[in-house]
Amino acid sequence: PVSVGAARLEDFPDGRTVHVSGNYAYVINFSKSLQVFDVSNPAKPVRVTSVKPAISGSWDVYVFGNYAFVRSLAPQGLEIFDISNPLQPVSVSSVKTDAGNYNLFVFGNYAYVINWLTSTLQIFDVSNPSQPILVGRTKTSCKPTDIFVSDNYAYVITAYSPAGFGRNYRWPGNIQAFDVSDPAKPTLLNT
């Protein structure tokens, strides 16, 4: 791979995650902002705007349709931005999540949220982005770190440390598959 272009992040320059949709890249600048870059010319990405989420500690962003979904660490939450005009993202709602936010995935009318500290998968109905509703929750085996949803299945990567934290720190994680055809009752298929 060869770098063809770059642009600096503003504020505290600790880019956490990026999601590209169309000609725009949406970047979470840890704890500070959601930044939008015009990437129509990959050799010259240009920051076009930046907004500070109402919930601090931004961690992850996922773009689906005309909305950007932003996860935050402290306090734990999910904030939804209308990005129908990428130059002017507007916060339309926020909702509290379980502790230890990590990544999220949006598919259809649902946002799938994994939580590190509580080892949970939460499912929110976001068919009305201005009123997200928690519809389902289940435990994961331990410390979820990433999620991908396809059709009626959510695939969750988890980390596990039988030795605990410290010198013997080790993470023999696994992948778990959940049937989410009924979002109110996510069901573990394997361990």
Query: If helices are DSSP runs of H or I spanning 4 or more residues, what is the number of helices?
Result: 0
The oligomeric state is single chain
- Catalogue the unreliable spans: none
> What is the CA-based Rg, rounded?
17 Å
Strand order of the largest sheet: 1-2-3-4
Shape: globular
Beta-strand percentage?
over 45%
The topology string of helices and strands comes to EEEEEEEEEEEEEEEE
Instruction: Give the terminus-to-terminus CA distance.
Output: 36 Å
Question: Total strand count, please?
Answer: 16
User: What about the largest sheet?
Assistant: 4 strands, antiparallel
Structural class: mainly beta
**How much helix is in the residues?**
under 10%
Q: What's the average pLDDT? A: 85
In short:
The protein is mainly β. 0% of the residues lie in helices and 51% in strands.
Please describe what this structure looks like.
The protein has no helices and 16 strands. The chain has strands at residues 15-21, 24-29, 33-38, 46-51, 58-64, 67-72, 77-82, 90-96, 101-107, 110-115, 120-125, 133-139, 144-150, 153-158, 174-179, 187-188. The strands form four sheets. It has a four-stranded antiparallel sheet, with no helix packed on it. The chain has a four-stranded antiparallel sheet with strand order 5-6-7-8, with no helix packed on it. The model has no long low-confidence stretch (mean pLDDT 85).
